[in-house]
Amino acid sequence: MARCGYHPCMDWVTCAYSAACTGVARRPSGLCLAHLAPEQLGAALAELSPGRLLDLRGITVTSDLLSMVLEATGRRPGRTRLDRARFTGDVRLAGVTFAGDVSLDGARFDRLASFFGARFEGNVSLAGVRFGRELSFHGVTVRGHVSLDRAVMARDALFSQAVFGHGLSCERARFDGYATFDGARLGDGAAFRGARFGRTLSFRKVSGHAGFEAAHFAADAYLSATGRLSATRARADGLLDVAVARCGVDLRHVEVAGPTTVRLTDSQADLEGAVLRGPATVTGRGRSTLTSLRQVEAASLGLSGLDLSACRFAGLSHPAGVRVKDCTFAITSRGVRMSLRWPMLRWFSRRRSAADEHPLRGRADPEEPGASPGRPATLHPGSRPGDRAGSADFASTSLVVRRRAGHGWWLSLSWLLYEYALRLDRHR
Predict the structure, then answer these.
(1) Rounded (10°) angle between helices 388-404 and 409-426
(2) Sheet harboring 201-206: ordered strands across?
(3) Residue 316's pLDDT band (cuts 50, 70, 90)
(4) Model pTM?
(5) Model confidence over 252-284: pLDDT tens digits?
(6) Residues 409-423 pLDDT 10s
(7) Is the pLDDT of residue 310 over 70?
(8) Number of domains, the chain
(9) Rounded to an integer, what distance in angstroms lies between the CA atom of residue 208 and that of residue 220?
(10) How far apart are CA 108 and CA 152, in angstroms?
(11) What are phi and psi of 425, to 5 degrees?
């Protein structure tokens, strides 16, 4: 029998049964709970009581041992330490209330891990845990914060209807199976930065904020929340379906291989720098705003029911593929003005215009795409509203932006003649 001592990866005295056992040693035997003789185990279980510390760090926990421990604690343990424990059988925690914080960092579940019906009064840390089979957090209530950072879920992971009082963190987690968070309540919000979803993700009707920055969706992803959603620099290999209400969604620099659908209800969206390889649509209801399409690469993009008065179009890669319907644009003022620059006399007609035009009226930012003489913003006729007046408005906007960007006296003359013709046409 080996002597007990410190394992280089543990911060506790390990079991003396063998060098391979990492279970926390108990005094005076020097053995972990899993290697105690029957009479010693009975005495150790008798020392457990509801609301008190439960320490099973590094222990290999069988289904029978887990049942005995839970019964000994009245199914209400206090502070629970299960770091690096290995659960060899099915884990079912229905009816168990953890009165204190729970730590399972680095633990391993070989079979089903069901927390369904459990309640956590404190925080729960599952950082680096590996779930070999299904994981169920369905309907679980956690009053504190839950961490699944760097966790690996090899099969389906169910978090629907769960309540996270102080939020959820799944940074760099790996969901290899189907994952669902439908109807979950996120409290202080959820973070999925750098997470990978191997199969379909269903994140529908979720309450709270969520961030999927730099996440990888290897299959279809459905994101719907009442709080702010962010998926900046995320990558989706399949379909990306996003729906938000009364909040904002940040899709800057997202890359989607399949179809993209964004539905806004009294919300705001930013798609700057997005790469949308499949057909894409952005629709709005109520007061919904699209703030930027700068540097967007989308061969087919439909915009409907949106406020585009502040939207930037500079650098749009495929403007001919943009279809606009029932959208609101900024309106220019009507009148005649004198200027010290050519042309000195200018006629202005009341027309719709893009936001790219406005910063160039004497307030150009040299760092902004489209404002530099080397990168003029050109709004292609394909990106204009389908009606005749809208097409004329955006043709004028294109001339204004290019003229202000320093593209020669002939553009100034073209703009002057175009505005005059547009003015005559509007008064017919």
Answers:
(1) 150
(2) 91-92, 113-114, 135-136, 157-158, 179-180, 201-206, 221-225, 240-245, 260-265, 280-285, 301-304, 322-325
(3) confident
(4) 0.81
(5) 999 999 999 999 999 999 999 999 999 999 999
(6) 444 545 445 555 555
(7) yes
(8) 3
(9) 21
(10) 10
(11) -65, -35
1, pLDDT greater than 50: no
Beta-bridge partners for 211: 191, 230
Phi, psi of 328 (to 5 degrees): -105, 135
Instruction: Specify the range with the lowest mean pLDDT, choosing from 88-97, 127-136, 177-186, 318-327.
Output: 318-327
Whether 87 and 154 map to the same domain: the answer is: yes
Q: Which residue has the tokens 């915009």?
A: 303
**CA proximity to 280, closest of 227, 233, 236:** 236
Which residue reads 């809208």 in tokens?
Answer: 390
User: For residues 339 and 342, what is the distance between their CA atoms, to the nearest angstrom?
Assistant: 7
Measured CA to CA, the distance from residue 107 to residue 83 in angstroms comes to 6
Q: Please indicate, yes or no, whether residues 213 and 138 belong to a single structural domain of this protein.
A: yes
| 363 has a pLDDT exceeding 50 | no
Q: Helix, strand, coil % (nearest 5) of the chain?
A: 15, 30, 55
Residues 28 and 109 both lie in one domain: no
Please indicate, yes or no, whether residues 258 and 119 belong to a single structural domain of this protein: yes
Within this chain, do residues 274 and 394 fall inside the same structural domain, yes or no?
A: no
Domain C-terminal end among 297, 325, 353: 325
- Let me know whether 105 and 243 are in one domain: yes
Residues 188 and 238: their CA atoms lie apart, in Å, by 29
Q: What is the Cα Rg of the chain in Å?
A: 30
Pick from 271, 290, 325: which residue ends a domain?
A: 325
Residue that the structure tokens 């009064």 belong to = 121
- What domain range includes position 11? 1-40
- Asked which of 5-14, 165-174, 238-247, 298-307 is least confident by mean pLDDT, the reply is 5-14
Residues 73 and 207 in one domain: yes
DSSP string, 190-239: EE-TT-EESS-EEEEEEBS-EE-TT-EESS-EEEEESS-EE-TT-EESS-
51 and 27 within one domain: no
